[in-house]
């Protein structure tokens, strides 16, 4: 069953801002370094005047968005 409303996590939809993403990819470490059933774990920081920092559950990139990854 879902948690009661006062125990629900804070959720925010961020649109039209640059985000910094920091994460790990750890295949084979699901549930240890990541959430169960996931091989990656990502957090973000928004670029707004009041930055939002938090865990990323979903990420949808707009058409023409740029995703820069380290080499």
Note the main attributes of this structure.
single chain; 71 residues; mainly beta; three-stranded antiparallel β-sheet; 3 strands
Q: Which whole number gives the mean pLDDT?
A: 87
Radius of gyration: 14 Å
**Main structural class:** mainly beta
In helices, the fraction of residues equals under 10%
Looking at the structure, what is the overall shape?
Answer: flat
Count all strands and give the number.
3
Taken as a percent bin, the fraction of beta residues is 15-25%
N-to-C order of helices and strands: EEE
Number of helices: 0
Distance between the termini: 43 Å
| Major sheet description | 3 strands, antiparallel
Low-confidence stretches: none
Strand order of the largest sheet: 1-2-3
Chain-wise SSE layout:
Elements: E1 19-25, E2 40-46, E3 53-55
Antiparallel strand pairs: 1-2, 2-3
Could you please describe the fold and organization of this structure?
The chain is an all-beta fold and 71 residues long. The protein has no helices and three strands. It has a three-stranded antiparallel β-sheet, with no helix packed on it. It is flat. The model has no long low-confidence stretch (mean pLDDT 87).
């Amino acid at each position: 069953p879902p948690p009661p409303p006062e125990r629900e996590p804070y959720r925010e939809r961020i649109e039209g801002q640059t985000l910094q993403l920091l994460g790990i990819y750890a295949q084979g470490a699901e549930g240890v370094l990541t959430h169960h059933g996931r091989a990656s774990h990502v957090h973000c920081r928004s670029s707004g005047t009041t930055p939002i920092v938090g865990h990323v559950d979903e990420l949808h990139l707009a058409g023409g968005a740029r995703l820069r990854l380290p080499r």
